Amino acid sequence: MALNAEIKSQLNQYLQLLEGDLVLKVSAGSDKVSEEMLTLIDELASMTSKITVEKVKLNRTPSFSVNRVGEDTGITFAGVPLGHEFTSLVLALLQVSGRAPKVDENVIDQIKKIKGEYHFETYVSLSCHNCPDVVQALNIMSVLNPGITHTMIDGAAYKDEVEKKDVLAVPAVYLNGESFGNGRMSLEEILAKLGEGPSADALSNKEPFDVLVVGGGPAGASAAIYAARKGIRTGIVAERFGGQILDTLSIENFISVKNTEGPKLAAALEEHVKEYDIDVMNLQRAKGLEKKDFIEVELENGAVLKSKTVIISTGARWRNVNVPGEQEFKNKGVAYCPHCDGPLFEGKDVAVIGGGNSGVEAAIDLAGIVKHVTVLEFMPELKADEVLQKRLYSLPNVTVVKNVQTKEITGTDKVDGITYIDRETEEEKHIELAGVFVQIGLVPNTDWLEGTLERNRIGEIVVDKRGATTVPGVFAAGDCTDSAYNQIIISMGSGATAALGAFDYLIRN
Ligand SMILES: Cc1cc2nc3c(=O)[nH]c(=O)nc-3n(C[C@H](O)[C@H](O)[C@H](O)COP(=O)(O)OP(=O)(O)OC[C@H]3O[C@@H](n4cnc5c(N)ncnc54)[C@H](O)[C@@H]3O)c2cc1C
After folding, report:
1. Do 336 and 503 form a contact (C-beta atoms < 8 A)?
2. Whose CA is nearest to atom 37 of ligand 1?
3. Which residues line ligand 1 (CB under 6 A)?
4. What topology does CATH give the domain 201-317+443-508?
5. Which superkingdom is the protein from (predicted)?
């Protein structure tokens, strides 16, 4: 496999930016993946005199590590880091060569101060858009701290390991041989998981805010920027900065941007927020709200933040089917992100629960990878757009089963099938499969507000045209509210409305 001209030209440009010399230590056999890896490495070495190659025996073959001369950094790629991992390879080369990673100075300090031995391994698929963030974060940690190592493992090249460890969702991170976490994790999240986050006292001791935004998706980011632009003291506390857009790949309806990817848009939101004097408290989950002299927001770690006004923008999350087996087999065959986890079911049978747009899109996507897809729809007809249904029905390896209710996702240590009831005949049926993708919509993240403000029948916060809730000084925006449609541009608009509403409230009170 020779590299295509576009990748070669990109590499050429990046390699100009190398600061110091690098040694790639390569462990190769005579298999096809080793061959592809060697082609990539030979091409790299032929493009710059700063890279030399040493043949060695590493823990895994095929794999290669990226090192400084005379100093191993602990960054290893097991497989060929192309596809979505190409950027991870380029960044590893640049950072090991001496270019500083683009992260906050205090995060760099935090990483350098970590004591002990941490050997991370991350199983990825090259088509997973959430994986590179994790790979790149752990690589940065390896570059900065000699006690930390990280190996990216392409699941497709290491099928035996993946089967043995029952990895059915990527990225899957292991620390010193034990499972550490699944799914997208930012550098800050990994540090927090290692117990390196800010203390509850440090958060509680903050001066009261004028506007405190709870939630860091498109609505929260927009609200915080609009508030900060009024010159008032603004904070944003978020469980996972970026929100739902982190879980989507292609966005084509964010007006003025023809096409972008969710994680890219999330990074742009963060960059825009950081342009302003906004106190960003990421990886903190709010668990309660109370109006006293100030409005107090209690966090899960026990900290209490005070503010004159609060904007709630906690968005929404995947809706669960709530049948036996769903919780037990999460990441063991029950999945929610077809882009991420689809490749792990290559050649296998899967089901998609839900026949709306997201379910049918997922089924079409999966049909290109897996052996067979069964779509299960509760209603007598699919709800997806006509054009999607047409495409779905044209596929030879898809079966659509309508008017059925999922009863149970079955398995022992991982999913082995699904049981459903035909709603017309009441007959119970079982199909054997390896994976179930749940695609039945979203629920608002408002449980933590129980008993504090008015919510509608489905838990959405009721707001007026200024974004005000039924509690004076508390505003809300985005997917957590009763707005008619849930879209990025709509959330951002309502975030702006809520911030202007809060500012208006502040000057009147
Ligand atoms: C797979 C997928 C694809 C999509 N594609 C598109 C698309 O192409 N175009 C489009 O316009 N829209 C799309 N959407 C919809 C869009 O992503 C949402 O409408 C938008 O993200 C809503 O923004 P939000 O800020 O209201 O909420 P969210 O994006 O849900 O953000 C909520 C924020 O609140 C935080 N949070 C939640 N609970 C708490 C708590 N208790 N304490 C602190 N923080 C909390 C979350 O961590 C997050 O930071 C898609 C959604 C999904 C899931």
Report:
1. no
2. 314
3. 214-220, 237-241, 243-245, 247-248, 251, 253, 285-286, 313-316, 445, 448, 478-479, 486-489, 491
4. FAD/NAD(P)-binding domain (3.50.50)
5. Bacteria
